[in-house]
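A.,

Following up on our hallway conversation. Structure tokens first:
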């Protein structure tokens, strides 16, 4: 059976009773057994749960009672999402045997939508410490070349979706942890507008920067996944009390009439991107222009001006979460995790407050920059994936990242693949929208994917199979 259907394609076949959820799930489980010994994308495969879910989905299909577009679709969850009765570790020794008693809100929503839960996926330790080689489980590897990095922290989700082990998965994004793996693994991944999807039951890192969101092979699939996870949660203090938009309604409208701003200095000056990344962005702008979009350059503060307060806030808030464990079990953390978090103990309260003040100024700046625009475009990552053994411990401080500005401002931001660079590794661009204009972001991303051929190419996995 073809393992590389999209969620949308598989859903139509299941609805027409031309595809068995049981056979689809078995195909995915077989690929996990074949490929994951090299990729290490799963921390736990829940085969019995997956087959039970698949049989229930097939019964609904045969009875004509399918729940919706995710019914019968194999997915998996980043291992910071609590799953009732199923181990949730954050990829850390500290929670090596942790078994929650309740599902997180998103896990519950996707289950109610009929998705098939295949297991728990690798992450950087507590969504910040990675890639680490001193944890109970190894780090996930990039399916395009297992010697290379997936980015993080939703590393297992990026690897599993790209390799066709699952059709979609959950991620979290505090400074780029959805868009980073989407970029380096050649996927679509969205950090929705802050407050769109509940974080309750997801292990926290930074209260004012954390977002939940999906990764999938296509923009359309991400829209379907976000539709099933979005919604107001009165028990999540960051949750937005507003109706959920229809994320797929405008997908086929194309780019005609869109007003697109390009933050060119982000990827040309502040952190110069690779030639393949730059070409991908320029080709995308040419395509959008040919479809009738208006393109203009936009200038805002430097990317470092956005990254500096972002990382002060993230590090300080993450230290506050982990302070008790850091004091009692410091050496049970991996080296990268404890070093990155311990740094937070040295940040004075005055710096945190000044970072919050600066955040407000930058949010207003971005609002004004987008006043007469629909979307912004810049890079998602500076280049193709580096080797996994060559990722610097303090890389996020050495050069400003492309993703943090939109955690800081809370704007919806989508990473899409724009081609392939050195060694056939993916490159990408980032599409950013106004608050709660996630549907417009999806519209632009889908218009680009529909007019290009990048979604027709999958990792060959020949390197993984040879290993």
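Then the amino acids I'd put at each of the 467 positions:
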């Amino acid at each position: 059976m073809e393992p590389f259907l999209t969620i949308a394609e598989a859903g139509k076949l299941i609805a027409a009773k031309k595809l068995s959820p049981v056979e689809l799930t078995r195909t995915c489980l077989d690929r996990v057994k074949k490929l994951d010994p090299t990729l290490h994308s799963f921390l736990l495969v829940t085969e019995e749960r997956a087959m039970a879910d698949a049989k229930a989905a097939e019964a609904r299909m045969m009875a004509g009672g399918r729940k919706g577009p995710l019914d019968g679709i194999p997915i998996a969850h980043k291992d910071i999402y609590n799953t009732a009765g199923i181990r949730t570790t954050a990829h850390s020794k500290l929670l090596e045997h942790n078994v929650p008693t309740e599902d997180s809100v998103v896990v519950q929503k996707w289950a109610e939508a009929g998705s098939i839960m295949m297991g728990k996926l690798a992450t950087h330790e507590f969504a910040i410490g990675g890639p680490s080689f001193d944890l109970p489980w190894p780090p996930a590897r990039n399916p395009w070349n297992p010697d290379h990095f997936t980015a993080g922290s939703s590393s297992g989700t990026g690897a599993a979706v790209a390799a066709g082990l699952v059709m979609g998965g959950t991620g979290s994004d505090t400074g780029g942890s959805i868009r980073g793996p989407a970029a380096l693994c050649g996927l679509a991944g969205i950090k929705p507008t802050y407050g769109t999807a509940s974080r309750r039951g997801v292990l926290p890192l930074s209260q004012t920067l954390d977002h939940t969101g999906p990764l999938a092979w296509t923009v359309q699939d991400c829209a379907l996944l976000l539709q099933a996870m979005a919604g107001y949660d009165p028990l999540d203090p960051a949750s937005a009390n507003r109706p959920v938009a229809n994320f797929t309604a405008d997908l086929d409208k194309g780019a005609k009439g869109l007003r697109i701003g390009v933050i060119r200095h982000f990827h040309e000056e502040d952190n110069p991107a690779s030639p393949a990344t730059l070409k991908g962005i320029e080709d995308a702008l040419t395509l959008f222009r040919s479809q009738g979009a208006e393109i203009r350059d936009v200038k805002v503060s430097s990317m470092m001006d956005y990254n500096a307060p972002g990382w002060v806030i993230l590090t300080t808030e993450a230290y506050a979460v982990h302070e008790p464990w850091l004091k009692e079990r410091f050496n049970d953390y991996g080296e990268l995790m404890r070093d990155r978090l311990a740094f937070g103990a040295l940040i004075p309260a005055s710096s945190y407050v000044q970072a919050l003040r600066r955040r407000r100024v930058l949010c207003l700046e971005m609002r004004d920059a987008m006043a007469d625009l629909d979307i912004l475009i810049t890079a998602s990552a500076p280049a193709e994936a580096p080797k996994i053994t060559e990722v610097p411990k303090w890389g996020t401080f050495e050069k400003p990242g492309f993703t943090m500005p939109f955690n800081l401002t809370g704007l919806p931001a989508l990473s899409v693949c724009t081609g392939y660079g050195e060694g056939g590794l993916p490159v990408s661009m980032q599409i950013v929208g106004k608050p709660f204009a996630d549907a417009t972001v999806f519209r632009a991303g889908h218009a680009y994917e529909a007019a290009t051929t990048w979604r027709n190419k999958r990792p060959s996995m020949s390197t993984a199979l040879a290993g």
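The CA atoms of residues 133 and 139 lie 7 Å apart. Curious whether your intuition agrees with the design.

B.
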